[in-house]
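Form 7-S
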Amino acid sequence: MAIKLFVTDLDGTLLNRENEISAENKLAIQDAVAQGTTVTIATGRMYVSALPYAKQLDVDVPIITYNGALIKSVSGEVLFESYLDPQTVKDVLDYCLEQNWYIQICQDDRLYFAERNDIARGYEAMAGLEGEAVGTAGLYEKTQLVPKMLVITSGSTESDAGVAKLQARFGDRIFAVKSNPTYIEIINPGVNKATSLQILLEKMNLQKVEVMAIGDSNNDLPMLKEAGFSVAMGNASDYVKSVCDYVTEDNMHSGVAAAIHKYVLE
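Output:
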């Protein structure tokens, strides 16, 4: 059956290490759209951070952001939104500060952190946006309408341990997932890229077998397992590769374009 919906992750997938979409990826996506395939993005990024890339692709479709906590079209229509309980936000802040972890909060598509240190500046540069330093007390004032909190660690081992600690501490009050070696995303339980993909399928009246998804990280796994056909990037972990139907080139060699040419374009 023809692929009618192609869903791609951003970081480590559609984007190269310079946070750019290669000319090859752009052209392949344009060719897929021209033949009638809908192409969209599913990312852990904030909507405001993902939007410029969707505009580069010249598509006005719902994009999955905040790792599934917000589905919003390029033109601004909200299809789905999920926010952490305010008390949970406070409790997670307490715990992370006790652990001396760097943590930031997204509220109303704006970024807040206690101080603009090297970690905060690094995230701002990656995301292409400017956050606001509000002090530790100020973070506790940002507990309403929070789709995601983000812990940034020193590396993969610390992130794995952090995910385990957070999940053990808060149980079914949160879902913690490592989206890259140094990022731990904290969202509502039951919210992920797969649940958002299901919402899109229902809206578009599509079946799973008509969907192809591509990604590289642990937070992509639910989506990759949900899609009818799944593709792992060449730079993905061995486990992500093991659950996918196909492994493409890495993100420095336009792996998205290679997958589109092989499985989407007729």
